[in-house]
Design a protein that fits this description.
Helix content: 40-55%
Low-confidence stretches: none
Largest sheet: 7 strands, mixed
Shape: globular
Mean pLDDT: 93
Strand content: 5-15%
Order of helices and strands: HHHHHEHHEHEHEHEEEHHEEHEEH
Strand order of the largest sheet: 1-7-6-5-4-2-3
Oligomer: single chain
Number of helices: 14
């Protein structure tokens, strides 16, 4: 089989996996141990024909795959890998380019520059900001916080990139108690520690308490980084940027916003009020593989101060070309040299959807979340535990016949939902109780899908009550 036939067969497998997805269980049929058994064998003693390898891979892998691209997958904040982005990503793989610098792959570097400009425009962020195309929000947070670390120490006359943290002035990090775990990981990787930060109390929806922040920032002496949140992972809530960012800047702090999914509210006239003044920050992290629906892996590290960004990230060596005036070297903005050309899928998705298409898609998800919450709340015993301000729903299942047994009933309901397979949803702990978290982020989720999802959830809840 030649290359063309092989690639065509792979595309056929991909299309078959995607096209009927709405009618298939939104969960794997194999668990981890069964998947390991399915792939386990000795090292192949001799070559195997490519078509056999491809078909064998599909047969072994598909039973252990979540239907994450399906319209009723609500388990995590995951986009649907839109066909347009997937098609561009097919080409990215086929082209086989190392997007490390602008000389090695001029087109990859150029398309990143254009896509970055488009992103800043759509997200309403300062046009002079620099953008690094990274694997996802974890690395985006890391990259932005590396720039922050370098800049606040530079202001204190310390060059952390040259001398490291040994002997450096201490950096105060202020962060909300309900920040996402990946931000704490980024702080750990950067030598700032995940436990030495100042964790600020939050309200019932995970927003930093303004009074506590005011007291904490007033006590800061020396270099400081403030980390705020656009879209709390459970509730979807937003910190009060209009108040907190000016307070932080008055103390000389760098303000970073973790906006993995919530920053996309900036693209919608109806939702933009929740992100009011987020553009006043110094850096922002967000994902493409969430609401922009690009394939994995794709995230964006956005930094207002390009020089601080480049100081923290530039990779230089005698064998690497220098960027001339007006040229953009992708390796100056990310902690990778050999890497995927993520700009192609980003460019293709923005080109396909346009400004109005992105706005409509985000609005559709948020409207679907609101409608789903309303349908569930009509069922006695189903409690919506958050204000649905974006796409996140926190659900609690209770029954007056068994007071105090809400945790058990919620756990049983989630298990029943996952067994049924019409939708996929997972559990979480929120404010000391067990809840179900629904994340509506797929471009295919509409009113019809919401009706099916509500029916599946209510059926599972009623079943769990009977079996209790």
């Amino acid at each position: 089989m030649g290359t063309k036939d092989l690639f065509s067969r792979a595309a056929d497998h991909a299309a078959r996996f995607r096209e009927p997805i709405g009618n298939l269980p939104h969960r794997p049929t194999l668990d981890y141990s069964a998947a390991v058994a399915a792939f386990s064998e000795d090292v192949p003693p001799a070559p195997t024909a490519m078509v056999e390898v491809l078909d064998d891979l599909v047969a072994r892998a598909e039973p252990g795959l979540h239907r994450m691209t399906g319209p009723r997958f609500f388990g995590w904040v995951i986009g649907g890998s839109h066909p347009m982005g997937v098609a561009a990503d097919f080409l990215t793989s086929a082209w086989g380019q190392n997007a490390g610098n602008h000389t090695a792959t001029p087109s990859a570097a150029a398309v990143e520059g254009i896509a970055a400009r488009w992103l800043l425009d759509i997200l309403g962020l300062p046009a002079q900001s620099s953008v690094g195309f990274v694997t996802g929000a974890t690395l985006a947070n890391f990259t932005c916080l590396a720039a922050a670390r370098g800049e606040v120490l530079r202001r204190a006359n310390w060059d952390v990139d040259a001398h490291g943290l040994f002997g450096a002035p201490p950096i105060t990090v202020l962060i909300g108690d309900d920040a996402h775990t990946t931000v704490f990981s980024a702080l750990q990787f950067l030598g700032l520690g995940h436990d030495r930060v100042v964790r600020l109390p939050t309200d019932d929806h995970g927003r930093i308490a303004v009074s506590a922040f005011s007291q904490a920032i007033a006590a800061v002496q020396g270099p400081c980084i403030v980390i705020l949140q656009a879209g709390q992972i459970n509730t979807g809530a937003f910190d009060d940027f209009s108040v907190l960012i000016p307070l932080a800047h008055s103390a000389g702090a760098w303000v970073h916003v973790d906006g993995a999914f919530g920053l996309w509210a900036q693209s919608c006239a109806k939702r933009r009020h929740v992100t009011a003044d987020v553009a006043l920050a110094d850096s922002w992290a967000t994902d493409g593989h969430k609401w922009l629906q690009t394939p994995y892996d794709c995230g964006y590290a956005i930094v207002r101060n390009e020089l601080a960004h480049r100081r923290a990230m530039t990779i230089a060596a005698s064998y690497l070309p220098l960027a001339a005036e007006g040229e953009r070297d992708p390796s100056h903005y990310v902690p990778e040299l050999s890497r995927r050309a993520r700009g192609f899928a980003t460019w293709a998705m923005i080109k396909h959807l346009g400004r109005t298409g992105i706005e409509a898609m985000v609005d559709r998800s948020c409207d679907a979340a609101s409608e789903l919450a309303q349908k569930l709340a009509r069922e006695p015993g189903v409690v919506i535990a958050n204000d649905v301000v974006l796409n996140q729903i926190v659900v609690r299942f209770e029954d007056e016949r068994w007071p105090g047994q809400g945790d058990e009933l919620t756990t049983r309901t989630i298990a029943a939902i996952q067994r049924d397979g019409r939708i996929f949803a997972g559990g979480a702990t929120w404010r000391g109780t067990q809840v179900m978290r629904l994340s509506v982020t797929n471009f295919q989720t509409d009113t019809a899908e919401v009706a099916l999802a509500a029916e599946a959830i209510i059926d599972a809840y009623r079943s769990a009550k009977i079996g209790a």
